[in-house]
Design a protein that fits this description.
Chain lengths: 449, 453
């Protein structure tokens, strides 16, 4: 019965991979009259326009004494610009349901704009003001500073935050990637308006700009819009984006952070692969099989389905510009944390020793190729993907060729990469929770109240 | 507060383009002969669909002492049928490139697969099969019970704010079943058996108690024969009876306050939950008026009370308001604040009370009501942009008793709200309904304003 069903699923998967190219999002490269470039997925189905852009750089370049400068500045860029103070600026956004947002990632500063077509001209005007003349008035600066500090206090004892901070310091010692890019109460207190103005000058420049768009806009309209949004920015910026390579120690370690918690938070990492690595797609397939494939993954099966040790367990590949990690995380009953870690370690070793099976490889390819169109279900998500395509130099035909890159992975490839990538000895494990109790220790009688 | 019901509000109130007579989703519907409602939300951008089956059973339908059983059954629904033995449901969906999951609320349980449209028949066959043919192995039930207890630890026991929320719910709702946590009380979860799950399954998992929602790249001409083939083949097994929900309200009404200190809290927070009318209970005009009121006072950084408390008086670092009227019993109106560093929660609460009293007395103006309404309708086009979020919003509304007409005419109804209605609904809310206030504090003795300078 079971094998019959599996066979029929395989057949179904085969049909899908053949049928997949039928999904056609046409990506055009748009050159503006002023010489800027963007990727566009033009689609007039809904009266919605999304523009996503990025400036290479990011929070990893924050000075140590002003950690959080990027995140604080990006939070303030839409809090008043040009002739509009914070209230006036935000009023126009809210009255017209325009979404404008900036965020700082480790290697990039990102901007997003989503608006309905009738409100798009106004949205472009506001975004242009935010990029070229943010005000940094005293009221919003102090309000946002207060909100960041309150947020830091709220997350201080969050087990996931503690685990992540501890782990990053262990795997990327002394590298900017290991810093908490939201800052600390002290560094946030130290950020001045002059710092933020200088940050804007350094970061918003045409030579580091990537732009993508999707939805209800033509190439000609986008070209004009790009020149209007970005044409006034400096051609080049003096910002040095060269960070040292972040190397992961060859030998992993286990770090326990004692906290009184009902459920221990376990976070693990080892060296990963960069996005441009020739083995990226093979590693993606291996990672799906091992831990990122939700209910289809080995870890979910071993930790949750077979043993009931956790609600969630998953892995991910995390590439940066100057380094790469492979993560695993599990939240597991405090007195069984070491058992869960042991199960995951065993699986890590099995993956290293033997790699995946042919059936697992087939299943992974069927899911990864079949689910690809699910990524393109909102105007904003399409623009975001096109930005990632440019950032990672994947080529304008990437959306069409991506499934063939997954299909090309052979069992030999998958085993070879599993052998070199999965490194049980290089795995660093952070366990946030109660320290393990000696198993046979009798409980001291409790005094009667 | 009641978990997943909030999703709908975001889709409607938050995302919100057109003047009157706009249709939100362009949904189409019909009933199968066995009583199952079928809904289509067309969206032809990508060749994918969101396929959802909603059952009108949630934690508020549970037998006393069996808290968590609706959610436990949701987990066990992945364990299999004779046709799809243990583990093969998730395997089958993944191998067809689908993302799947399920969720449970106070009033409904829903299962979904987001998948390429040519795989829809396979998904329908599987969902129709597990509607009636679930098999459960006792050993699998025992293992899965550990999983839901870990889920409780992750969502509740490990999170001080969730622990407080659970206590606030219990105090606010008292004998109304909305006071029971969806995940369950741990002691009762430990006692949940295979039979308990089957009792719920047999009583509620049937066509007359289910809604099929498909959003995406398909037309009714194609969907109807598929729905008839897979779901229509299930014999009718009963008639839908409106669900028994306590409409008990605290009598005499009282405002309760719960102050909880927790060793892992560093930043005090303050929130208040108020029982409110819903689409199902009370006057419908009040529901739309409260939607407008909530947008007006707390919908964003230019909203009235945000300006007063965060920008002008600076007693709070943040302020928000929300209203959830999608419920089979009463709805909930909520406000929350984070006191600024150096401000006690009592000071923040006093400032809120004073500002709200002034607002209710003579502070609700025509211009502000008109602005709030404009904002709620300005982004309506976003609601149907993603088939996945559209299916979720429509399914949740239908599962608590709204109709397609209610959903599609929402912009018109909001457009009709008058200033007098907003005033009246808001005043009634604060005088006639019970509330609970929850304060979360650092361990006693610690600096109440946390470690911020």
């Amino acid at each position: 019965m079971m094998s019959f069903i599996r066979t029929s699923f395989c057949a179904a998967g085969l049909v899908l991979s053949l049928a997949a190219p039928a999904f056609a999002i046409t990506v055009k490269e748009v050159k503006s009259p002023g010489g800027l470039t963007a990727y566009l997925a033009e689609d007039h189905t809904n009266p919605i326009i999304a523009i996503t852009f990025g400036f290479k750089g990011g929070s990893a370049l924050d000075p140590v004494a002003k950690l959080g400068l990027s995140s604080m500045t990006t939070a303030l860029i839409d809090e008043g610009a040009g002739s509009l103070d914070s209230f006036a600026f935000q009023t126009v956004l809210e009255d017209r349901a325009i979404r404008i947002g900036f965020s700082a990632e480790r290697d990039m500063v990102r901007g997003n704009l989503v608006a309905t077509t009738p409100n798009s001209a106004k949205a472009f005007e506001l975004m242009q003001m935010a990029l070229t003349s943010p005000r940094f008035d005293a009221e919003p600066v102090e309000r946002i500073r207060r909100q960041i500090q309150v947020g830091l206090a709220s997350r201080q004892e969050n087990p996931s935050r503690i685990a992540r901070k501890t782990l990053m310091e262990a795997v990327f010692p002394n590298h900017p990637y290991a810093r908490e890019d939201e800052g600390t109460p002290e560094t946030i207190a130290a950020v001045t308006v002059d710092d933020m103005r200088a940050w804007v000058k350094r970061n918003f420049a045409q030579d580091r700009l990537l732009v993508s768009a999707s939805g209800d806009i033509t190439p000609a309209q986008l070209g004009k819009t790009m020149d209007m949004l970005f044409g006034q920015l400096p051609k080049t910026s003096g910002l040095d984006t060269n960070l040292p390579e972040a190397s992961v120690p060859a030998k992993g370690q286990t770090i326990r952070v004692e906290k009184n918690l009902p459920q221990s938070m376990v976070l693990m990492a080892q060296k990963g692969l960069k996005r441009q690595d020739k083995d990226w797609y093979i590693a993606t397939v291996d990672d799906y099989i091992f831990g990122s494939g939700s209910f289809a993954s080995r870890l979910m099966d071993e930790v949750r389905e077979k043993r009931g040790l956790a609600y969630g367990v998953s892995t991910s590949l995390q590439p940066y510009d100057h380094g790469a990690l492979m993560f695993a995380n599990v939240g597991t009953r405090a007195d069984q944390a070491d058992i869960s870690v042991g199960v995951i370690r065993d699986e890590w070793k099995k993956m290293h020793d033997a790699g995946p099976t042919q059936a697992e490889l087939d299943g992974a390819k069927q899911y990864l190729t079949g689910a690809w169109p699910l990524r393109f279900t909102s105007t904003g998500s399409i623009a975001d993907i096109l930005l990632a395509v440019q950032r990672d130099n994947l080529g304008i035909d990437y959306l069409d060729k991506r499934n063939s890159l997954i299909e090309a992975v052979t069992l030999d490839d998958a085993k070879r990469v599993a052998k070199t990538l999965y490194d049980p000895d290089g795995l660093t494990v952070v366990i946030v929770g109660p320290l393990p109790q000696p198993a046979a220790k009798p409980q001291a009688p409790k005094p009667k109240p | 507060m009641r978990g997943f019901v909030l999703g709908l509000m975001l889709a409607f109130v938050g995302l919100n383009a057109q003047p009157a007579h706009a249709v939100v989703y362009g949904a189409e519907t019909f009933m199968l002969a066995n009583g199952m409602q079928v809904v289509l939300i067309p969206n032809h951008r990508a060749p994918v669909v969101s396929h959802m089956v909603w059952y009108k059973i949630g934690s508020a339908d549970e037998t006393p002492g069996k808290s968590g059983i609706a959610h436990f059954l949701e987990h066990l629904m992945f364990k299999g049928t004779p046709k799809y033995p243990a583990g093969t449901i998730t395997d089958m969906v993944a191998r067809n490139g689908g993302d799947q999951n399920a969720f449970t609320s106070t009033d409904y349980t829903a299962y979904y697969e987001n998948i390429a449209v040519d795989r829809l028949p396979l998904m329908m066959e599987m969902e129709a099969d597990r509607m009636r043919n679930l098999t459960l192995d006792v050993k699998e039930v025992d293992t899965e019970r550990e999983v839901i207890i870990e889920e409780r630890r992750m969502r509740t026991d490990n999170v001080p704010g969730s622990l407080l929320g659970e206590r606030m719910n219990a105090a606010l709702w008292m004998t109304n079943h909305y006071g029971i946590p969806i995940i369950g009380w741990e002691a009762e979860m430990r006692g949940l058996s295979r039979d308990d799950a089957f009792n719920v399954y047999k009583a509620y998992y049937a066509p007359h108690n289910a809604i099929l929602v498909v959003a995406g790249d398909i037309t009714m001409d194609k969907l109807k024969p598929l729905a008839e083939k897979y779901y229509g083949a299930i014999p009718r097994s009963g008639e839908y009876k409106p669900r028994a929900r306590s409409t008990f309200l605290q009598s005499p009404r009282a405002d309760t306050q719960i102050v909880m200190s927790h060793e892992r809290v560093r930043q005090p927070t303050w929130s208040r939950e108020i029982i409110a009318p819903s689409y199902a209970v009370g006057n419908r005009a009040d529901v739309h008026a409260l939607e407008v009121f909530s947008e007006m006072i707390g919908g964003g950084s230019t909203a009235k009370l945000y300006r007063t408390l965060v920008v002008d008086q600076k007693v709070a670092a943040s302020f928000g308001a929300g209203y959830d009227g999608d419920a089979v019993s009463y709805g909930t109106f909520s406000v929350s604040m984070t006191p600024s560093p150096g401000v006690t929660w009592q000071q923040a609460e006093a400032a809120y009370t004073k500002a709200m009293e002034a607002l209710l007395k003579d502070g609700i103006t025509d211009a502000e009501v008109a602005q709030a309404k404009r904002r709620m309708l300005a982004g309506l086009a976003f609601a149907k942009d993603s088939p996945i979020s559209a299916a979720s919003a429509v399914g949740a509304a239908l599962a608590v008793g709204q109709t397609i007409v209610d959903i599609e005419t929402w912009p018109d109804e909001v457009g009709k709200v008058t200033t007098a209605q907003v005033r009246s609904a808001a005043r009634k809310l604060f005088t006639e309904y019970a509330s609970v206030t929850g304060v979360l504090l650092p361990p006693s003795g610690a600096d109440a304003a946390g470690e911020a300078p």
